[in-house]
Design goal:
Layout: E1 4-8, E2 12-17, E3 23-28, H1 45-49, E4 52-59, H2 70-81, E5 86-92, H3 94-101, H4 103-106, E6 110-114, H5 132-135, E7 152-157, H6 162-174, E8 178-182, H7 192-196, H8 202-207, H9 214-225, H10 229-239, H11 244-265
Helix pairs in contact: 10-11
Amino acid sequence: MTPEPVFDGTHLRAVLVNADARRLMVTLDYRMSGRAGFAPFTPSRNFARNGFAQLSIKSARNDWFVNPDTLALERVLAGLAGRYQAVHAIGYSMGGYGAFRFAPALGITRIVAVSPQVSIDPALVPWDRRFRAEARGFDAALGGLTPLDSVTGAILVDPFNRLDLWNALSLQALYPAVGLARAAFGGHPATAVLSDAGIGWTPQRQAQTGAPSAAALTEAHRRARRVSTSYWRALARATARTRPGVAAHALGQLAACHARHADRQA
């Protein structure tokens, strides 16, 4: 699959693969510690096998795709959207925000976002100080999200990460047809438990459905908990002082997970 350049700016790039497919999957960069320029693009063979073109939107910096190239990219994306019967998107953290940000230009109607932000603008999210360094010079008007009833899908979030939860709830206020999947102790992004169980690809699979389901993501997380060392470790830590019985049960389950893993390695 040879990537076809769609936009090649100083700050943003977009490439398209499997362009003749009927449906489009939009993928977007996540925040990467120490990012220095554009990261390499590896197209998804799974998307192609399932009949999707893939549009990858990449940023040279952790700037939440808000920079001097944003408007020019949007104009290009608006001309691309009409080629496809349906436009889906998946994004993690910064990429989740980007999916909502570019939804109007691309006509995105189905989004799966994992631990996304509603903004990094200090005036809009004064309670979330995690990205203050990246927020210096952030253009709040250019980075503002457009409320849309037409966008469906799901946000996967760890409800015990209160900042991620508040961002998710703020996004739901703008996109009321997007459901919330609570993945307890899933971390940031909220896929740690799914990954422990070997099903970290679940959000990508849901993003390809005609109706991405928060309930399906929640159920997958629930099933994954049984074999997740990170889940039981986090539960034991969270309940050690207030609910020692729960903590003891969690430690027992953690030991059982380690034993099962050791048996598989033997």
